[in-house]
Amino acid sequence: MNNKNENSVVLADFFSTFQLKISDYQRPYIWTFTQFLKLYEDLINYQKNLGNSTPLYYLGNIILVKNNTEGYDIIDGQQRITSLLILANLLQQKELLSCNNEFAINSTISKNNIKANAEYFRHYLKDKNVEKIQFEKINITYIIAENQDQAFKFYTTLNTSGKRLNGLDIVKPFHLQALAKEKQEEKARLFEKHQFSNNLLDKIIKLSLRIRYWTGLPFRDFPRNHENSWNEFLPQEFAYSEMLSKHDYKYATVVEDKDTTESSVPAYQVNQPLYKGENTIHYLVYWCEVWLIVENKLKSEIFDKMDKLEGIEFNREYYEMALLCYASKYGINAIEEDNFITIAKGLFKVCFYTRLTKPCSKISIKNSEEENQLLKRILYAFDKNEIIEYYNSFFNEATLNTAAETKTGRVQKFKDSFGFKEDHYEQPFFNQ
Known about the structure:
By secondary structure, this protein is an alpha/beta fold. The protein has helices at about 10-15, 35-50, 80-90, 110-125, 150-155, 165-175, 180-195, 200-215, 230-240, 280-305, 315-330, 330-335, 340-350, 360-370, 375-380, 385-395, 410-415, and strands at about 5-10, 20, 55-65, 70-75, 140-145, 255, 260-265. The radius of gyration is 26 Å and the shape is elongated.
């Protein structure tokens, strides 16, 4: 884009031109003091080496969109801009802030992090010669989007000098900004509970993404290289402009027998269609809460043992996907049933079968699912006995390589940890 809504200016002029605001749907200010201090020291070191031919310090792109009042919402760049506004106040350069002296932030998390960084920085400045920032030497490119949808298209594609966006940074504001303003803070807090208190959102969004790819028609896969590949795929599944809004659907199974009809309690299905706004927010929060129940139920029997082992991350992810599919098909109540732990152990054996002979890669797990379709079998099973019959038949057909090299090292440690007793896979390898 190259028009009047895009311009390159020094930061002093930027602060005096635009009244800035962080909307409730944006992620909180989360920079640590290490990041905060690095920005300050980078700027001071730059200033010490200024010469006549030294170019301006380039801070990157800032994306804005006009809000309903007189100001502009920061869509991208808020971590950097907020840090510089904090510095301007602490270094007593408030005159440069002009119309941003009353820069408002509502998030409790943001307020706490700002307070912490300010206190650390005051301690850092103690007994030092205070060096002020030359805001007129800092250059940015600002982009003003015409509306929220356009803003988020820029937001997902531009690379700035700030922290690289991860998938959740894109999905969260996309759906929050679609809500009525009075709902934004309430729903943002739902996100933040599982994003920062227990760090579950990132886990759930990745597990559910892979489930949706692997259980769809046709089978879909995505790159297995660097973690940043998630950035390209999460928005396509969870935050795309064509998503319909104003629906918050859950799904249930109905069973009819002559004159009687039974239906399960509606719940968010892991592979269900998603809608813009509350639907996707509630979907992700629901699966975070389900996962806490699953993890607590299996903690002593399975998860505590897995935590002590190395080299099982891909099998573990696959197993966690299977558990989510089971909860999706049969609901939260099924997790509390007496046979859940037994079924969870059976699913464990299928997911970890490849690990009993050698360490596994992502591609070997992907190939295993593509061949055996465990996740689809769970989601499409009408009765739990179908799942039990499947993993029992899987064990009976499987043969275990008992080469001498499997008797030592990680493989043997894995067997010992889970009570593997014999060199035949049909024998139980859990202590019952």
